[in-house]
Design goal:
Radius of gyration: 28 Å
Strand content: 25-35%
Shape: globular
Distance between the termini: 24 Å
Structural class: alpha/beta
Number of helices: 13
Number of strands: 30
Helix content: 10-25%
């Protein structure tokens, strides 16, 4: 992005992130509960009033069978690349022992799981002892946590498994900048999506990240042919039978419950399609079927997919579907080599048809059975390399003119050393000249040898400039994964967020220059009941109400700023400038 980010009427340069204010991030005295602390191993954690360093409560750790069984704490604001000062008070009451050593430690993933002892202290029974430590987490580290345990030993005895207490946990570090929602920022231009798996949908942090940044989801593997086709049921019925796995149902249910549009991926593909699907009797011991039989099967399969989705999840907006995926070889041979070994890039589809008729038929059947609102795409990688680029162009142009295909999906699995932004731009122009829609479906950019986060950020920035330029015929951009730790290319850090969900320079590079919607001027949007209107002015938050009541005000990160009582009429509440959320509305205080 080349323009200047307007935020609350001020200029905020985000590309080079400077150190933020150092502040107390956590001060937990266990008076209000466990406050995010959980057990490690077989240990149990619970609030206790038996003893306390301050107040009346502490955290008691019991049921320890190994020395490392203790308690652990993780938070989204304890992240890689930052330094933290941590302190915690320890004691124990076991009358069998006079003293014991306890440790304040950290754990994180960085080319394997790392365990670091920040500090330790000899603790006397019945006396509280404060332990202070400091740690810098390496850039790119993931799964970060702070934990407490007995002093580590390989010769454990009963003393190493005793119950103990902690209190007054304090963590001081750099306050992280709040990040704006990607899908909100790009809403004027295109959908902003990501690929998800069942584990992401089952994770509270994953769901929170999705809710903030993405308004389109793609099932990473759960809707591919091998995940949906049932061999036993197909044999029983004599035609292809599809079913939804637990993982697919979880993703689709999430989309249904949260009104998140879905990209379907994918129907016809040489890979991740079971070999038995192409054989007589749905059994690889038999001969490969004829072209005529395969065409019948293909129609039955595609029809079954769309009918099942419509029946089981009628509320899900399936706005796009990759009908055919990766049909072309990277070389000059056009279609993939005929054969049965997908691991070698061979294709049963080419083996049976010998030409691209299977692609035409797939789009013909998808157009027949897909919802009218679902656009259909040919999807491929290395889409910018000749002669593959021209092969894709000729195919999509033919299908688009036949009104069976709506556009091309550019997977865009890129690297810092290839392709050039110029080559990629030329490819966008070429596909746009067809007149069809374009969707960027699987974007990631690996950091190759000699490159840095800054190199990656510059390429991301240049690409999104191109996407905005082409937004009149580019309707969706999806990154392939929520963060580096969930990427299939994660060893080369290809995405916009670190493994702990913190924003990378690449993230800031693609929002620099975007004008935050309604950042200048008041926002006056009534809530659902129409009883309360909230908006911001200079140095104040306004509540206009028909009755007395109270309202909760949150920061963009979701933390509670305060609960404010208001009276009937106009209420003026002084607040520092910032962006807040009240009654599910964004409020700008300038």
């Amino acid at each position: 992005m080349k323009r200047t980010l307007l935020l609350l009427g001020a200029t905020l340069l985000m590309t080079n992130i400077e150190a933020q204010e150092v502040k107390e991030l956590h001060n937990i005295d266990f008076e209000l509960g466990v406050s995010g602390w959980v057990n490690r191993g077989d240990a149990k954690v619970a609030i206790s009033t038996e003893t306390a360093n301050s107040g009346s409560s502490s955290l008691k750790i019991t049921n320890r069978s190994q020395v490392w069984n203790g308690a652990s704490f993780a938070s989204g604001d304890i992240v890689s690349g930052k330094t933290y000062k941590v302190s915690c008070a320890f004691t124990f009451t076991d009358t069998r022992y006079e003293t014991h050593t306890f440790e304040l430690c950290a754990q994180y993933d960085d080319n394997g799981t790392r365990y670091v002892t920040m500090a330790s202290a000899d603790v006397t029974r019945g006396k509280w002892t404060e332990v202070n430590g400091e740690i810098t987490f390496p850039s790119g580290a993931g799964n970060i946590s702070i934990y407490v345990q007995s002093k580590y030993t390989t010769e454990e005895t009963d003393i190493d498994h005793m119950d103990f207490f902690i209190d007054d946990f304090v963590c001081i570090g750099e306050e992280l900048p709040e990040v704006e929602s990607l899908c909100n920022l790009y809403k004027p231009y295109f959908r902003f999506g990501t690929a998800v798996s069942t584990s992401v949908i089952s994770s509270a942090s994953g769901k929170s990240h999705i809710e903030k940044h993405f308004n389109s989801l793609t099932a990473e593997n759960e809707m591919k042919p091998d995940a949906m086709l049932s061999q036993s049921l197909s044999k029983e019925k004599g035609e292809p039978v599809v079913q939804l796995s637990y993982g697919a149902r979880q993703i689709l249910q999430y989309c249904s419950d949260n009104n998140v549009p879905l990209r379907g991926h994918c129907l016809v593909w040489h890979s991740q399609t079971p070999a038995w699907f192409f054989h007589e009797g749905f059994d690889t011991k038999n001969e490969v079927v004829s072209k005529e039989t395969m065409t019948t099967r293909m129609e039955q399969y595609i029809k079954a997919v769309f009918e099942l989705l419509a029946k089981e999840f009628p509320k899900v907006n399936i706005y796009a579907y990759d009908v055919v995926n990766e049909a072309f070889a990277d070389g000059s041979n056009g279609l993939r080599t005929a054969g049965k070994d997908a691991s070698k890039g061979q294709s049963y589809w080419t083996l049976i048809y010998g030409n691209d008729l299977f692609i035409e038929k797939a789009f013909e059947f998808a157009r027949k059975y897909a919802p009218a609102t679902c656009k259909l795409y040919y999807n491929d990688y290395n889409e910018y390399i000749e002669p593959k680029r021209t092969n894709i162009y000729n195919l999509v142009k033919k299908l688009y003119n036949n009104k069976t295909c709506d556009g091309v999906g550019m997977q865009s699995h890129l690297a810092t050393n290839y392709p050039s932004v110029q080559l990629y731009s030329e490819t966008l122009d070429k596909f746009a000249s067809i007149g069809c829609d374009i969707q960027v479906t699987e974007l990631d950019i690996t950091i190759e040898s000699g490159a840095s986060d800054a190199t990656q950020a510059k390429i991301y920035s240049d690409l999104f400039d191109l996407y905005i330029k082409h937004s009149s015929h580019l309707s969706s951009v999806s990154v392939w994964g929520l963060h580096d730790g969930m990427s299939w290319r994660g060893d080369r850090k290809p995405l916009l967020f670190n493994s702990d969900y913190t924003a990378k320079p690449a993230y800031y590079s693609i929002i620099d220059g975007l004008e935050i919607e309604n950042a200048i001027g008041d926002i006056r949007v009534p809530c659902e009941t129409n009883d309360v209107v909230v908006f911001g002015i200079q140095n104040a938050f306004i509540v206009e109400a028909l009755n007395d009541g109270e309202i909760e005000l949150y920061s963009l990160s979701g933390s509670l700023v305060g609960v404010y009582k208001y009276s009937e009429g106009r209420n003026i509440i002084a607040l520092p400038k910032g962006i807040y959320i009240a009654n599910k509305q964004k409020v700008i205080v300038r």
